[in-house]
Design brief:
Blueprint: H1 2-22, H2 29-42, H3 44-50, H4 54-59, H5 61-66, E1 68-70, H6 71-91, H7 95-115, E2 117-119, H8 132-174
Parallel strand pairs: 1-2
Helix pairs in contact: 1-2, 2-3, 6-7
């Protein structure tokens, strides 16, 4: 019963996170994290499916793999939060509410600038953002490296075989 409830919550959070992609007021990442948590606790099948979706790749993979967020994502999060809280502070008449919002904003900046690592872009050309010619160039160089490695491996095998033949020949002469 609890597993079924967690699966339902997982899909609910997935839907809310997906809506958050197009509605800037609604955060995407926290709901997708909750989706992953619900699926991980309830169903290996749904969890495996979720971690292979483009939503997971785009919004969570860098953080889950490296515990880091790309600088562009950090900037987008901080700009969105800053704008929303600035509007809320402008609208709010209560001084205490404005103070709380300033504290929340400062907390966001502290957390994202000092606590969350910045993921650096991939150094190879085969990243998902690469142009097709970069990918084919990278694939060609990877193919060349594979051929060189295979050739070196074949050379070592040939040398080892020759060495074994010499040892076999030498031991047969010793008898």
């Amino acid at each position: 019963m609890i597993k079924m409830l967690l699966i339902c919550f997982g899909f609910f959070f997935l839907a809310v996170g997906a809506v958050g992609i197009v509605v800037p007021i609604l955060p995407t990442t926290p709901f997708l994290l909750l989706t992953g948590l619900c699926f991980a606790k309830s169903s290996e099948k749904f969890h495996n499916w979720f971690i292979q979706t483009w939503l997971y790749d785009k919004y969570l993979r860098a953080y889950m793999d490296k515990r880091a967020i790309p600088a562009s994502s950090k900037a987008r999060i901080l700009i969105t939060v800053s704008i929303l809280l600035a509007v809320a502070m402008y609208i709010a008449d209560n001084v205490y509410a404005r103070i709380v919002m300033c504290i929340v904003l400062a907390g966001h900046y502290y957390y994202f600038l000092f606590r969350v690592k910045t993921a650096h872009p991939r150094s190879h050309a085969a990243s998902k953002d690469a142009f097709p010619q970069d990918v084919s160039r990278s694939a060609a160089s990877a193919h060349d490296e594979l051929l060189i490695t295979a050739s070196a491996h074949d050379d070592r095998l040939t040398a080892a075989s020759a060495h074994d033949d010499r040892l076999t020949t030498a031991s047969s002469h010793d008898d």
